[in-house]
Amino acid sequence: MPSRTNPRPVRPAARNAVLLAALADAVLILAFAAIGRDAHQRGDVIIGVFLTAWPFLAGAAIAWLAMRLWRAPLRIWPAGVTVWLGAVVLGMALRAVTGQTVVLPFIVVALLSLGTFLVGYRLIVAGFRRLAGRRQHS
Questions:
Q1: Torsions phi, psi for 43 (to 5 deg)
Q2: Model pTM?
Q3: Count of alpha carbons within 13 angstroms of residue 19, beta-carbon side
Q4: pLDDT score, position 2
Q5: Angle between helices 45-66 and 104-137 (to 10 degrees)
């Protein structure tokens, strides 16, 4: 009979980091959709934002699951880059198969905006962690 090992329990701090990272990703993707809709003066604010955001949210969720990003959700690589590219690539694919607009300027804007948002906050977190580590060793 093969030996079974129990997975290590997830520490509360690690669980909080996973929840906060997932929430931050979702909120930033929703912000991207809201900013885009506002820039193009489209109606149906709340429903419209969700209609615009859902493919990107689904792409990010698939990236989280496929790469098991809960293991290190705040790392720039692979978490930040994977969520960013998953949101854009899979999000655009989902938009295309559901008949939503996918044009080159929108792809470029999504790459730049979501990259800034999803990788950017992880860069900030990494900077704060580095500063905190230096202070502890001083």
A1: -80, -165
A2: 0.86
A3: 7
A4: 52
A5: 60
